[in-house]
Target: dTTP/UTP pyrophosphatase
Amino acid sequence: MAQKLILASASPRRRELLAQLGLDFKVIPSGIDETSLTAGPPELVAVRLAEQKAADVAMRAGEGIVIGADTIVVVDDSILGKPKDENDARKMLTRLSGRWHRVYTGIAVIHTASGGKISDYEESRVKFKKLSPREIENYIKTGEPMDKAGGYGIQGKGALLVEKIEGCYYNIVGLPLFKLGAMLSHFGVEVL
Ligand SMILES: Cc1cn([C@H]2C[C@H](O)[C@@H](COP(=O)(O)OP(=O)(O)OP(=O)(O)O)O2)c(=O)[nH]c1=O
Model:
């Protein structure tokens, strides 16, 4: 029998990306507060948050396979989450201007019936073009930065900020599909 898939996320991007795989799934957002970012290597911070989101939803999801994810942007070893306000977005974009940074998405998958869990992360590198103050202001006016880690969305008008990337594109948008496919296969989901 096909296993029930549950995406533990309120992110419309993650929903669209998972839908791209053509699998049936249900969405149950987690109640995890991401401001509780803990210390330690950034990739592990992303993994821990993904695990918390998946575990929170697994408690009330019934039988199935629960997927949690968390995306962070890292520059000079500082973690950039979602901007608090426009001024915060301005600071983030100014900091990223003309430079390479890293994007990590932690993913956690829980098989509720057996209690089996696996987690992992994906890393991508992103190079921003040098932005003028006017370009930063115009981008902020689009409203795009506000609900996104690092204050930009590569899948939207933010594409104009990104000169090049190395690694998985889907990881930057919020769900590394290749890695997720491998993790789901581990629990017997036939992704292809
Ligand atoms: C860098 C980048 C981030 N993002 C988004 C992906 C995530 O939705 C968001 C980072 O926030 P997250 O805390 O990872 O996720 P979320 O709060 O949106 O959803 P949930 O916790 O319920 O799963 O930033 C983009 O959409 N495009 C980008 O280029």
Observations:
- The pocket of thymidine-5'-triphosphate is lined by residues 9-11, 13-14, 29, 34, 53, 69-71, 73, 82, 103, 148-150, 152-155, 158, 172-174 (CB under 6 Å).
- The radius of gyration is 17 Å.
- The domain at 5-186 is CATH 3.90.950.10 (Maf protein).
- Helices lie at 12-20, 42-58, 86-96, 133-141, 169-173, 177-186.
